Amino acid sequence: MNKSVFNTAQFHACVDSAHKLEDAQAEVAFVGRSNVGKSSLVNALCGRRLLAKISKTPGKTRTINVFSIRYGKWIVDLPGYGFAAVSIKEKDNWKHMIECYLSSRSSLKAIFVLVDAHVGATALDRQMLAWLKSTGMPYRVIVNKIDRITQVKLVEQRQNLSLDLEVMPERILWVSAKKGTGIKELQVVTSSFLAL
Ligand SMILES: Nc1nc2c(ncn2[C@@H]2O[C@H](COP(=O)(O)OP(=O)(O)OP(=O)(O)O)[C@@H](O)[C@H]2O)c(=O)[nH]1
Ligand SMILES: [Mg+2]
Description:
196 residues, alpha/beta, Rossmann fold, 7-stranded mixed β-sheet, 6 helices, 36% helix, globular, binds guanosine-5'-triphosphate
């Protein structure tokens, strides 16, 4: 794998509906709670600080944001779920946008479901995973913000989250977008899904 391939990622599109996206060769998408660090992880993966917009305030990403690694090879940053401070109508719109995206993209090779190491799995995380399992779509669980917990807690969380989410421990990636921990492994996994 050529690591620098991620460094040249470029913003490709920002749409409010999956129907507005053209066909791609291969894509991976980041889903998860608002504020879990999806956009930060896209930046860490690409070794770029300002590619995807991030914010301390949940609800920053409100559209489907596509970044192109190579022609037709995409990384997709989606809005988060579980963001309380919006109207029910807006929540429904986002849910529809995410579901429509996830179920309509034939080139979607993997869905990266982000979970917060400090917060643990939420009801919506479990719901998302149950749905992905029921559809047979390929997914990987990524636990972000491991810099926020102690080594002791990390060992505990490895066991707890694996049981809670019913995912084999070796299929979970442990990362910190902030510190760069686990990013090399994420690059290897992403390269493989995108056949870079
Ligand atoms: N400590 C720590 N903070 C992080 C990490 N990753 C992201 N953050 C912080 O978490 C906050 C949210 O990050 P975003 O990347 O905007 O989160 P998001 O999941 O894209 O959020 P939405 O766009 O609202 O869905 C920001 O303040 C980030 O700096 C991490 O690994 N460790
Ligand atoms: Mg975001």
